[in-house]
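PT: before anyone asks, these are the final sequences, not the draft ones from last week. 470 residues across everything. Please model them as a single complex and drop the result in this thread when it's through.
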Amino acid sequence: MNKFSVSTAVAGALLALASQAAVAAPDWGKVPKRDINVFHAGVTPIEWATKKSDHSGSAGMRKGESCAGCHEEKGTLNFNFKRLADKELEPKGAPKTMMFPVSVQAAYDAANLYIRLTFKAPSGGADKGDKDNEVKATVLFADAKVPQADQYGCWQSCHADARTMPGADDKKTKYAKEGAYELMQWASKGNKVSDGSVTTERKMTGGTTGAKAEASKSGDTYTVTFTRKNPGEGKAVPFGIAVHADNSSGRFHHVSLGYKLGIGADGDVKAAKQ
Amino acid sequence: MADNKFTGFLAMIRRPSAKYSLLSLLVVGFFSGIFFWGGFNTGMEATNTLEFCIGCHEMRDNVYVEYKKTIHYTNRTGVRAVCSDCHVPKDWTHKMIRKIQASKEVWGKITGVIDTPEKFAAHRLQMAESEWARMKANDSRECRNCHSFDAMDVEKQKLRGAKMHKIGISEKKTCIDCHKGIAHTKPKGMKEDEDE
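LR: through. Structure below.
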């Protein structure tokens, strides 16, 4: 094989890969958007949410009601934000913006699941624990062994004794008592992407999603597009999203309630087939 | 000597009057009755006012301050529920029983059981549990003086309230089962309900 034919073959292979990538990338203009509100949850871990004397809605939870089933209403969240910002539930100080929408789009093909998050990260946070990253965007996917993952979303990984909670060990990460979460995160410093998990502890590496991410900022709007392995067509996967805005860390994020991502199945967010 | 005077007094009030007509006695008795009964009720009602309740610094500096931040103190409709609306029964019999029970609190005031913020905090759970037990036992009667499931249109409520009230109605729950700490700070160390 001469030099020309080798270079032609390489060029052809690259072209083929490029065209495949071009085919795989969803046309986001055609993918429906679902606005999901993320909010500052203060100190309301799963222990708080399931304790009746703290949260009278726990009676509904025990009957199978989901967090979103009671709290998502008319395109917003009906929380008593005054209470969430009060020093009892937020002893350190609440951010100026307690809630903001994240536009969520999802698409899939045989190999991958694509998730695009578009949001304006607010300033005015009360915690600047992450000096390196102005903004981080995270998605958690619960496996079938996480109890009531359909109802509670990420809350099964949020505990009163995890770091940044009042009086908690600073080295104890979020964790799941049963089951596991896949974790993918984009961080603004160096466009770092983490592919991790939450089991008995949270790990930022060694995950199974094969996550990649691209991000851009236009004006004050961030667009973060994740690509991960397709969990399987026909599945509805419980998921939740979090945005750490304004250099916040740990629990000082804005989080979503639990939702389901339908991949060729019904869900709160339905991934568009490519 | 004293015994003789007392016996004489008894004999006098038991002896039919030769001086006053029966009509006079009835009229005087009738109006005296109104006067004393009215005076008694007025006096009792005076102990039902907000001003009376916060006359003690124990109430004024603790629970009153907390209550002033709640919807029962100020709201869009301008209806205010004062202390007695929630803590004293409306009907006479239960009100009298409650007032007699509450006389115990006078002793607490004299002995200074809750006369500092620290002492109040130490007793808050016990006092709250006692009041919750009273409300639970009477099916939240004082709440129901204003609120009732019959008059409640849950469809007009926020989703979170609507769903919980539907559960409450179907399971015959009473207001205080869920609505603890709505007018005052919840005490620390609350026990979880046994029926859950």
